[in-house]
Write a structure and sequence with these properties.
- With 354 residues, this protein is of the alpha/beta class.
- The longest helix has 29 residues.
- The chain has ten helices and 17 strands.
- The two termini are 41 Å apart.
- 44% of the residues are buried.
- It has two domains: 266 residues, Alpha-Beta Complex (Spore Coat Polysaccharide Biosynthesis Protein SpsA, Chain A), CATH 3.90.550.10; 82 residues, no CATH class.
- The strands form four sheets. Strands 6-9-7-8-10 form a five-stranded mixed barrel.
- 35% of the residues lie in helices and 27% in strands.
Length: 354
């Protein structure tokens, strides 16, 4: 049977001050119609893959459950150890339910404009994973030479809409990104992939043996004593696990990887500047998600809580965000640097605003 897995552990510091430790990026209402990113992801995942498991951190579980409802299938990690451990834990849970489970893994905090194309591409990836027992990444056709994303370099064509993966390319510099996009044969790595749960656990055991041993012990506890016993064993073992991403820890080392290309209208909503790509702008190029007035103002992004008013006069190319007890002002061109403000606040002992 096919399953979805949503990874909902990221903090999203580049979306401060709306994204906070108590309300991180997946819980922000930045999806169409004011839905949260995680709610939109769950809806897409259930449509494309079937029953969907959400993996999140223990401290986020109450907020995630409140957002998704009491019936949501949620698995809480005792501490965060990046995505390799989270994907492995999801595979353990799926294998306990269905030894033949095939899973499609999705980040919780991305935007997809073309959901019909998304559903079709995920179905193609799941079918390839079922028939070949492979790990099948979904690559996004680039719309620009973006140095902020990882890339997938494609190999030979194996069938309609299916390519071999030659290698993963870490976030390149601007010149390398331009060269790859101009040459073709490279896709953005969206962090979405499909594979049999059993194959994923085999790869983790091979490439991350400490994590693999811990997952085996958690699986044994689950089989012997149920979810409560598994949670107790995870609480004992998790703190010692390496904190490493599934890309670095497994996918970049695994053999026989496949890729399904897609044009999805994908956006990782990685910084406030991304709102210009997913929200309509006014005639002056301003993206306005706040009440107020913009006078002789162009190319700005403005967001505020309901009931708050923002006025801009004679400014251009700014991001202005009011959320709760904090305000951010940054040039759009430097929106990726918001995490520096978060680090500075932490260094100043102002953690209560994070």
């Amino acid at each position: 049977m096919r399953y979805g897995v949503i990874l909902a552990g990221g903090g999203g510091t580049r979306l401060w001050p709306a994204s906070r430790r108590a309300r991180p990026k997946p819980l922000l209402p930045l999806a169409p119609g004011g839905a949260t990113l995680i709610a939109a992801t769950l809806r897409r995942a259930e449509r494309a893959a079937g029953p969907t498991l959400v993996v999140t951190a223990a401290e986020m579980e109450p907020a995630v459950r409140a957002e998704l409802g009491s019936d949501a299938w949620i698995l809480a990690e005792p501490v965060g150890r990046n995505t390799a451990a989270a994907v492995g834990l999801a595979a353990v849970a799926l294998m306990a339910r269905d030894p033949d489970a095939v899973m499609a893994v999705f980040p919780a905090d991305h935007h997809i404009a073309d959901e019909d194309a998304f559903t079709a591409v995920v179905a193609r990836a799941l079918a390839a994973a079922e028939s070949s027992r492979a790990i099948v990444s979904i690559g996004v056709v680039p719309t620009r030479p973006e140095p902020g994303f990882g890339y997938i370099e494609l190999g030979e064509e194996l069938g309609p809409g299916l390519r071999a993966v030659r290698r993963f390319v870490e976030k390149p510099d601007a010149a390398a990104a331009l060269s790859m996009v101009a040459a073709g044969g490279h896709l953005w790595n969206a962090g979405i992939f499909a594979c049999p749960a059993e194959r994923m656990l085999e790869e983790i055991e091979q490439h991350l043996p400490d994590t693999g041993r811990a997952l085996s012990e958690i699986a044994a506890a689950l089989a012997a004593g149920g979810e409560e016993a598994a949670a107790a064993r995870a609480a004992e073992l998790y703190p010692a696990l390496p904190a490493i991403s599934i890309d670095h820890g497994v996918l970049e080392k695994a053999g026989d990887l496949l890729c399904v290309p897609g044009e999805l209208g994908w956006n990782d909503v990685g910084a406030w500047s991304a709102l210009a790509e997913i929200e309509p702008a006014d005639p002056d190029g301003n993206v306005r998600l706040a009440e107020g007035a913009l006078v002789d103002a162009r190319g700005n992004i403005v967001l505020a809580d309901p009931g708050r008013v923002v006025a801009l006069v004679g400014v251009e190319g700014l991001v202005v965000v009011q959320a709760g007890d904090a305000v951010l002002v940054v040039p759009r061109a430097r929106a990726q640097e918001v995490r520096a403000a978060v680090a500075a606040l932490e260094a100043a002992g102002l953690d209560r605003y994070l």
